[in-house]
Every structure is written in structure tokens, then in C-alpha cells.
């Protein structure tokens, strides 16, 4: 199998970063769209692959269509997009901690509105990071002790739900009734305009709803090193009712899922 050509959105840190490193180590070419490419100036792990020519750092904002179009063009024929955008809270003296309410959804809309078509290749696959606990049914399935924490994540979860609704549209899935009607404040008015037609990305989208993220080790690598061959996290289309998963193990699953695409369908939950 030829090495993958990946476009990575949101890989300056955490899961996107760990997934990019894993893919690069496996021989993939990874184009990273970054608002601040200098974040990797002193990063030896990334710079090694920049010198090899397999890591490409593109300056741009995934909310701006001209930047996304340039990223697609620089990347060439893309096999898959790894989308791990997440809003980071900022502090305001007058407002306290605030978070961009629709960053994730708006970035995904921009990715989809600029999606290229290839003459001799299928459309790119998209694997997108979401979260457990989104919507009433998912929240009900959470362990009791962490429900209060997830109750405080209303705004980020509306944003993730908007992203999922945009992906459902292009994948040809029915909208998840647990999300309610698409929110105008998240997706905007007439949000389906200029998106690819429903079903354009049929069987080309995987949404990963990760449990509460931690900074723990990649247990998947440790298990493999011991020859047991089975990752320690669980993966299911059903709600798992689990507590956590490390960012490194989530990246482990993302990369593994790209290699085993036909085994996973639509939306999956991952956690310990």
C-alpha cells in the first residue's frame, strides 16, 4: 500500500499533533495547516520530517476559505483529513474565561466548502474528533461522577454537535435527533449552501467521540510492545459509559482507524 497523504487541521498540539507524528513515522506525508507554524520551530520530532519533506507546514486559518484552498492545493491529492480542531478558553478581565462558541463547526464548514474533487481519485476521507456526552441520550449514559463536569461543557458541545451535523449532511446520514435542530448561532443561516451534496462523502466520514481526555501514556503502544496485540481502549457505536482516555491513545485509535477504515462506521465512541 502506498504511503498516505494526509491533511491535518488542528495539529499544533494534543491529539492532532500525536496523530501527525505517528503518521509521519509510518511513512505518510502530512500537510499541517497552522495559524502559527513557528510553534514547531524547536520541535525536533516535527523538524526531522520537515527536512525529509514529508511534513509540510502551511500558515493559515481553517476558518478562511482562501487559506483552506491553499492548504488543499499544497497538499495535493489527499487521502484523508485528520480534523482535531478544539477551542481553547481565553481569559478576559471583564468576562472571565471565554471560549469561541463555534470555532469547530465553522472550521469544518470551511473544510467542506473547499473540498476538492479529483479526476482519478475518490474524495478524501475525513476523520473528526468529537466528544462523548453530547446530547441527552449520550449525557445520560455518562458515569454519574463526571456528569456535573459535562454539564458545564454546554457551549463546546453545541459546537461539536454543529460539526457532526455538517458531516452528517455530506455523508448522507440522518441528523442525530439528540442534537436538536441545527443552531443558527453555531452553523449560521443557510449553512448547507455551498456544501457538497448529501451523500458526496458516503462511507468517507468517521466521527470519533472520545471520553474525557487525559495526558496519560499511550497504552496501545505498550500493549503492542508486550505482544498482546489488543489496544486497551474500547470502541463502539453504542454509548460506552466510560470515564477517560488519554490523548495519546485517542491519536493511536485515529491512526489505526485510517488503516482499518472499513471496520468502523459513521460515529464511534472510544474510552477505557
UniProtKB/TrEMBL annotation:
Coiled coil: none annotated. Pfam families: NAD_binding_10. InterPro entries: NAD(P)-bd_dom (IPR016040), NAD(P)-bd_dom_sf (IPR036291). Gene3D superfamilies: NAD(P)-binding Rossmann-like Domain (3.40.50.720). It comes from the Eukaryota. Residues 10-147 form the NAD(P)-binding domain. This is NAD(P)-binding domain-containing protein.
Amino acid at each position: 500500500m502506498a504511503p498516505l497523504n494526509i491533511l491535518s487541521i488542528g495539529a499544533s498540539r494534543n491529539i492532532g499533533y500525536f496523530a501527525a507524528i505517528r503518521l509521519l513515522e509510518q511513512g505518510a506525508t502530512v500537510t499541517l495547516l497552522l495559524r502559527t507554524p513557528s510553534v514547531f520551530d524547536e520541535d525536533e520530532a516535527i523538524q526531522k520530517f520537515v527536512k525529509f519533506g514529508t511534513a509540510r507546514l502551511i500558515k493559515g486559518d481553517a476558518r478562511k476559505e482562501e487559506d483552506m484552498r491553499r492548504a488543499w492545493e499544497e497538499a495535493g491529492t489527499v487521502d484523508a483529513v485528520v480534523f482535531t480542531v478544539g477551542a481553547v478558553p481565553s481569559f478576559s478581565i471583564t468576562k472571565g474565561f471565554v471560549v469561541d462558541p463555534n470555532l469547530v463547526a465553522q472550521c469544518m464548514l470551511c473544510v467542506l466548502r473547499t473540498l476538492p474533487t479529483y479526476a482519478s481519485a475518490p474524495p478524501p476521507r475525513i476523520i473528526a474528533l468529537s466528544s462523548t456526552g453530547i446530547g441527552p441520550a449520550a449525557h445520560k449514559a455518562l458515569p454519574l461522577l463526571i456528569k456535573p463536569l459535562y454539564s458545564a461543557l454546554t457551549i463546546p458541545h453545541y459546537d461539536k454537535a454543529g460539526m457532526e451535523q455538517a458531516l452528517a449532511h455530506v455523508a448522507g446520514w440522518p441528523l442525530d435527533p439528540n442534537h436538536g435542530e441545527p443552531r443558527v448561532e453555531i452553523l449560521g443561516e443557510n449553512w448547507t449552501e455551498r456544501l457538497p451534496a448529501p451523500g458526496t462523502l458516503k462511507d468517507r466520514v468517521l466521527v470519533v467521540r472520545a471520553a474525557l481526555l487525559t495526558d496519560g501514556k499511550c497504552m496501545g503502544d505498550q500493549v503492542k510492545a508486550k505482544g498482546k496485540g489488543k489496544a486497551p481502549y474500547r470502541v463502539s457505536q453504542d454509548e460506552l459509559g466510560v470515564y477517560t482516555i488519554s490523548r495519546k491513545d485517542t491519536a493511536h485509535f485515529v491512526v489505526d482507524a485510517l488503516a482499518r477504515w472499513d471496520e468502523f462506521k459513521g460515529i464511534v465512541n472510544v474510552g477505557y
